[in-house]
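Interim report to the steering committee. The following record documents the input for NTP pyrophosphohydrolases including oxidative damage repair enzymes (219 residues).
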Amino acid sequence: MHIPGTHEFTVTDTELLLESPILGVRRDSLIMPGGSTARREVVEHFGAVAVVAFDGENIAMVKQYRRSVGDSLWELPAGLLDIADEDELTGAQRELMEEAGLEASEWSVLTDLITSPGFCDEAVRVFLARGLTKVERPKVMGDEEADMINQWVPLHEAVGMVFSGQLVNSIAIAGVMAADAVIAGRASARAVTAPFTYRPTALAQRRKAHGIVPDMKKL
């Protein structure tokens, strides 16, 4: 008799269905608890980082066009872990500078989340950044970031945006609510050295094996 929670979901075959600059799609065949074989499609992702940059009252937010929903969404400064072997903190520091024109002297980890575990391995680490200094943003031409809006939003207003439906990006929601709890003293952030257990590896390992480095998007 099968005891729930004890089955080993053994992969018997894997087929690569799609390879594009920022993702891959594969189909895995697995042995299910009853002994049958089932197929599951998995969207492979590089993983990402996001930053709640807090100046003592406000957080830095961006509004960016997202083709998947055909609208511009309020979000946190964020980006892919698409540079080979780049650690999460370095990636977050790069994205904060590129998207918000900020550097920070104090960093901690607010939360890690798996955005869509039903079909995608994307996992995101959200940082809290304090001790902010303005720096020059690099010029961006031609992509969605060229149309990006940057705005400081009081943290309590960002929390309200979650409940009013103005803030719908799941990464931003997780970061805003976690930051509110940490800053209010209801929770504690983690050190930046905390393991990022679910950081995706399949896509990055395949790109590196094919020599697609350091920018693993350059197919």
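The mean pLDDT is 96. The committee is asked to note this result when reviewing the revised timeline.
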